[in-house]
Design a protein that fits this description.
This protein has 393 residues and is an alpha/beta fold. It contains 12 helices and 17 strands. The strands form 4 sheets. Strands 4-12-11-10-7-5-6 form a 7-stranded mixed sheet, sandwiched between helices. Bound molecules: pyridoxal-5'-phosphate. The site of pyridoxal-5'-phosphate has 15 residues, from helix 4.
């Protein structure tokens, strides 16, 4: 008999019912140190008083109104995002995949408005993850995401991640933009090479293409800058964000320059829930904390400490190969199956996330303290010492 939850996830038996700070608890009171953060969502940890209060007050005032009406709540958050970034206009969504959908539509409409409807394709990169809609899975070459969904639209050309020459060679009259994650998350925690990202920016400028950054996972302070592209000294034309911006309340956004959004006129896009007052209250509360330069300084300092301790620790255990990533978006590359080790870590009271290329993703709340770093490294070390690599089937 089919389970009541459509069986699309291989769920573990960890069943959290409560969260506090950097910890999750199940109904029996078992505790886990949460260095997964709902896959880079709970940037303020669990039950953060500022976020909780903002949500509670907004819930008691007004949860939802339609986008048929003016929205002072959305305007406030949009103004903050515009003031903090390259962007001049914002569309609010409910998820990362929806933010990507809006980004792709914005790119398409930009070229249509400019009289170039033939520029309907976008270059993307191997191992990318942009979400699970049909558009988003068409934008990757990962067979496990695409399997069983052919035929998919031919709107994307997928090229090797990091290969600027391949991107140059792939530009033809049908290409209107380039979509890339500055730091690939699901694809194995791979920061883009600076020359690659700068080169893509330059290619877009030379050929009249739009650079679209997917900062759904790496944005909102995760890398120690408000947005990851700030490390690279470039700005995009369009950017998709989600995850951390709501701190756990489902919300995403597509940010764009005025020029890039030239085709997004009345009737071209919409969303029933997108940007409702409850979601906006959460975004405001998150930005109050994460957009503070002093907070980001602390994130970078904690990230350097965590990375240093992980680098030291891996030398003691032959199952670990290397540490990679940017800020608090870290990956430990293993020389055995990372999924099995992530499951083993759960039994040692530590939550992490597996990524491609046998990487254990370490995505703690941005509010971690030194003690959490020590606890994570101790738990990883103890788990590694006790680990017996499962025999290949
Ligand atoms: N883009 C990136 C880089 C992501 O990591 C994700 C989710 O993991 C998405 C897009 C899709 O976001 P969502 O699951 O909210 O649709």
């Amino acid at each position: 008999m089919i389970p009541v939850l459509m069986p699309v996830y291989a769920r573990s038996d960890v069943a959290p019912v409560r969260g506090e700070g950097c910890y999750l608890y199940d109904a029996e009171g078992r505790q886990w140190l949460d260095f997964a953060s709902g896959i880079a969502v709970n940037c303020l940890g669990h039950g953060h008083p500022h976020l909780t209060k903002a949500i509670q007050e907004q819930a008691a005032t007004l949860i939802h109104v339609s986008n048929l009406y003016a929205s002072p709540q959305q305007e406030k958050v949009a103004r903050r995002l515009v003031d903090l970034t390259f962007a001049e206009t914002v569309f609010f969504t409910n998820s990362g995949a929806e933010a990507i959908e809006c980004a792709v539509k914005t790119c398409r409409r930009h070229h249509v408005a400019a009289g170039r409807p033939e520029k309907y394709r976008i270059l993307t990169f191997s191992n990318a993850f942009h979400g699970r809609t049909m558009t988003a899975i068409a934008a990757t070459d990962q067979a496990k995401l695409r399997d069983g969904f052919d035929p998919l639209p031919d709107w994307f050309r997928v090229l090797p991640f990091g290969d600027l020459e391949a991107a140059k060679a792939a530009i033809d009259p049908s290409i209107g933009g380039i979509l890339v994650e500055p730091v690939q998350g699901e694809g194995g925690v791979r920061p883009a090479d600076p020359a690659f990202l700068k080169g893509l920016r330059q290619l877009c400028d030379e050929h009249g293409l739009l650079l679209i950054l997917d900062e759904v996972q790496c944005g909102v302070g995760r890398t120690g800058r408000l947005f990851a592209h700030e490390h690279y000294g470039i700005t995009p034309d369009i950017m998709a964000i989600a995850k951390g911006i709501g701190g756990g309340v489902p919300v995403g956004a597509c940010l764009a320059t005025e020029r890039a959004a030239s085709g997004m006129v009345v009737g071209t896009h919409g969303s029933t829930y997108g940007g409702n007052p409850l979601a906006m209250a959460a975004c405001n509360a998150v930005l109050d904390i994460v957009a503070d330069p002093a907070f980001l300084d602390t994130v970078r300092a904690r990230a350097a400490r965590l990375r240093g301790e992980l680098e030291q620790m891996i030398g003691n255990h032959p199952i670990f190969e290397s540490v990679r990533g940017l800020g608090l978006m870290l990956g430990v590359k293993m020389n055995c199956d990372s999924r099995a080790f992530v499951a083993h870590l759960r039994n040692h009271g530590l939550l992490t996330v597996a990524a491609a290329d046998n990487v254990v993703r370490i995505l703690p709340p941005l509010v971690i303290e030194e003690a959490h770093i020590r606890e994570c490294v101790e738990k990883m070390s103890a788990a590694a010492a006790a680990y017996r690599v499962p025999e290949a089937a």
